[in-house]
Amino acid sequence: MSDKTMTRQVLLFISVLSLSSVHGQVSYSIPEEMAKGSLIGNMAQDLGLDIKRLKSGKARIYTGNSAEYIELNKERGVLLIRERIDREALCGQTTPCALHSQIILENPMELFQITIEITDINDNAPSFKKNEKRFEISETAVIGSKFVLEKAGDADIGLNGLQSYSLKPTDNFALKLENQVDGSKKVEMVLQKPLDREKQEQVSLVLTAIDGGEPRLSGTVQIHVIVLDANDNAPVFTQPVYKATITENSPKGTYLTKVSASDADTGSNGEVSYSISNNMDSVSDMFHIHANGEVILVGKVDFEKAKHYQIDIEAIDNGGLSDSSKVIVDVIDINDNAPVTSVLSKSSSIPEDSIQNTVVAMFSVHDPDSDINGQVHCGINENIPFTIKATSNGFYSLVTDSELDRERASEYNISVTCSDEGVPSLSSSVTLTLQISDVNDNAPVFERSSYEAYIIENNTPGLSIFTVKARDADWNQNARVSYILEDSSVNGVPVSSYVSISADSGVIQALRSFDYEQIKDFQFRVKAQDGGSPPLSSNVTVKIMIQDQNDNAPQVLYPVQTSSSLVAEMVPSRSRCGLSLGLQNGEIRTIRQVNDKDAVKQRLTVVVEDNGQPSRSATVNVNVAVADSFP
């Protein structure tokens, strides 16, 4: 390949699209047949990307359903030829011929579109389907008689394609070329000097097809003319162009149309036969013409491969005279292709505090059918906080459209279904599984708004009083609760000298033995704090009630007992009955009247007993003196 044909053309334009998922587009133009490893272009430089970004974004190239002809060198930021590209095998006669790829980056997700136009080089010579062509022409053929020659085919396009023909020698025949609607040329050999069988029974000519490449390439066919007598009328078609339509996937044997040509000669010279004269195998292998002129389908018609066909028909009589016509076949599309969904990139997990419109996945959808059969709409399952947005033709992003809450839903199975508008509609689906990761957005919550607990006095230090419990709706470390005793004081003494709390279990323990007669209750606050960053917490009030034990005997306040003197209670000698002991109020009354026989001095022992378990008691001695009068 010459240096001239190796010249690369770089067409760069970067557009700001309506959505941020597609960040730029670059186009290159390269010739076909470049060697493996050849440089296509500096993609990083042309898109303004840093090499570090390619590495951190795990840059990769997506080529869709086409063969991977190109590759990305992330170390240099360049695109290279991965496999040799044959433009004719890739695109045939279609022009322009282009490869469409995408460069995908992650963290954050970005999409860049790459278009590489494959230009033609002159690597195919014009060729004829047959090496020889035989004509039997009557010597009475009139000047101007036309004979249809086989058209050459050239897989190249443009200037590299077929450009001209030449016919040699030119003693009897001249070459006539007529432009066709499809861009090809009708090739005819025109008689310009009468034939004389007696002088020359056979004429040999060479038809050469030449392309416009550099250097020019050519192909030839040998033409043998056998000079006959008396067939001086050529067949004539009833119309120059026939039209037919056929639905793709039609069965073999389907009828298209019928052509007809007539010959004014009689006998065998007027018998006409038909043939398909297309050089391209795609046509000659697809259609067949019967002896009666009926054209039928013998191959498989696929609208996605070819939308139109031109069948060149030749009518020839037994004298070698001929005429040509053509059948234009339009292929009607049917909805025989479901949309193809390809996931370009996806996230397996996103945090629950992700902002709205966070990109979860990017995918492309392609339907090779036409019109409404190829129009695709994508949707997802209902009642989930996601939506689909189109980023460019055939490319979509799956994004969040409302707040996420891991505590409400920690995982989503997102079914993306893409359907075309054909009748009946065809569709394809892909399911994406997305985990919602936790953030610390829930504080611990105590089981009660406040707590009251009881402990009997004279307890053993270290005794567990009760347990507080708080729960956190978050997950893992964010839900790990620790319990903390908040600083406060009870009667001027730090509460931490009264009780302690287990940070892990929430168990509250007494650090001392309590005395009900000194303190009957006290309260403090406990904080529950999670392990998030930053941590969240909540508080609760705990009230400890000291329960009394019967650890004190009754004390007699009166009469006061002393060792030095005894106090005597005076009772009149004429007291009436009513001396008894009040069980509850401690009153002592007489139960009968005092008489002369009664001792003047009485000593009473009174037992005072409480109701505790076990019961405790105290005794007191009461001296009673009986007197007639009081000092």
Automatic annotation (TrEMBL):
A single GO BP: homophilic cell adhesion via plasma membrane adhesion molecules
Keywords: Calcium, Cell adhesion, Cell membrane, Glycoprotein, Membrane, Repeat, Signal, Transmembrane, Transmembrane helix
Signal peptide: 1-24
Compartment(s) of residence: Cell membrane
UniProt keyword Transferase present: no
InterPro entries xref list: Cadherin-like_dom, Cadherin-like_sf, Cadherin_CS, Cadherin_N, Protocadherin/Cadherin-CA
Gene Ontology cellular component annotations, sorted alphabetically: plasma membrane
Membrane topology classification: Single-pass type I membrane protein
Gene Ontology MF terms: calcium ion binding
Cadherin domain span: 22-128, 129-237, 238-341, 342-446, 447-556
PROSITE patterns recorded: CADHERIN_1, CADHERIN_2
Pfam family, one: Cadherin_2
Principal place of residence: membrane
Function according to Swiss-Prot or TrEMBL: Potential calcium-dependent cell-adhesion protein. May be involved in the establishment and maintenance of specific neuronal connections in the brain.
PANTHER family: CADHERIN-87A, PROTOCADHERIN 1 GAMMA 11 PRECURSOR-RELATED
Identification of the protein by name: Cadherin domain-containing protein
